[in-house]
Write a structure and sequence with these properties.
The protein is α+β, with helices and mostly antiparallel strands. The chain has a single domain, classed as Cation efflux protein, cytoplasmic domain (Alpha-Beta Plaits, 2-Layer Sandwich). It is about 30% helix and about 40% strand. Strand 1 and strand 2 form a beta hairpin. The N and C termini lie far apart (about 40 Å).
Length: about 120
């Protein structure tokens, strides 16, 4: 299966970034966000990325990267606040590392309890 790439025009030619790289960047930033316990499988049971980009889907529309990420939130914290932090972290990481504008949708698939 050929990989899909996002193309970024540069001064000396185009830079092609794999959607898998974009997914890993987004997942890493989201996973490090306060209140996110883990990444989760997508809610609709669709294709699942494995490894560090688990639970993340990427598509490009009109020059904007659209990211969907499923997470597990820690119990006892505001789910809305956790989602907003995750969105902001992913968008900032993608913009700083790739220069691409992004839209990040976060799906809270569950809540985890600390032992």
């Amino acid at each position: 299966m050929p990989e899909n790439y996002v193309t970024v025009p540069a001064e000396r030619g185009d830079i092609h970034i794999s959607e898998d790289v974009i997914a890993v960047i987004a997942a890493g930033a989201i996973h490090e966000s306060e209140g996110v316990a883990a990444m989760s499988a997508p809610l609709d049971g669709g294709a699942i990325r494995k490894g560090p980009a688990r639970g993340v889907r990427v598509k490009l529309e009109d020059g904007v990267v659209h990211v969907e990420a499923a997470i597990l939130a820690r119990y006892g914290e505001s789910i809305a606040a956790i989602g907003e932090r995750a969105q902001r972290s992913a968008a900032e990481a993608l913009e700083s590392m790739t220069g691409l504008k992004s839209v990040v949708d976060v799906y809270v698939a569950g809540v985890t309890f600390d032992k």
